[in-house]
Design goal:
Number of helices: 0
Strand content: over 45%
Helix content: under 10%
Mean pLDDT: 76
Number of domains: 1
Low-confidence stretches: 1-32
Number of strands: 14
Structural class: mainly beta
Length: 167
């Protein structure tokens, strides 16, 4: 799903939000080299804000100061795990590469997903164990940060989930 196109304006950076979250699920039984990876259907995932206001870490960013901007949003993730129900699995959250400045994401959770962080172009483990229930609902608090001075055009962030299962 596509998340967060974001424009930069003067001293305020805003992340416009479209759809939400992503992660991946992989099978923990058997060697990882033989595991098959599948994208998880996340129809029903909702980002709980149309626009995410970004804030500077420092009030007056400049050449020698911190130019980081940051914003936080709640995402209600809905994963369809029915094809892998009760199979040993690993779930990963993926943030696709972006053009321009690297984006960092970190999150806390309310349920079975692990809290964590990743940067654009990376993936990280968020769950290991038996897959289930068939439809998994989870709420995460997602914080995004990037260099506010290099954020000069609309960017689209693409988060998604995958699952790895042995053949």
């Amino acid at each position: 799903m596509t998340w967060f196109p974001f424009p930069c304006r003067a001293n305020l950076v805003r992340f416009g939000l479209r759809c939400a979250a992503a992660a991946l699920l992989a099978w923990s039984a058997g060697p990882q080299a033989s595991a098959a990876t599948f994208r998880i259907d996340e129809t029903g995932t909702v980002v709980n804000a149309a626009v995410l206001n970004m804030r500077w870490h420092q009030l007056v960013p400049g050449r020698s100061s911190d130019n980081t901007v940051e914003g936080t949003v709640r995402v209600d993730v809905r994963l369809n795990l029915a094809p892998w129900i009760n199979k040993p699995a690993r779930i990963y959250m993926v943030l696709a590469p972006v053009s321009g400045e690297r984006v960092k994401a970190r999150w806390t959770t309310q349920g079975r997903l692990l809290p964590g962080s990743l940067s654009s172009g990376d993936r990280t483990l968020v769950f290991e164990g038996p897959a289930g229930p068939a439809v998994w609902n989870e709420s995460i608090l997602l914080t995004l940060e990037t260099d506010g001075q290099r954020l000069v055009q609309l960017q689209t962030l693409n988060f998604y989930f995958e699952i790895e299962v042995s053949p």
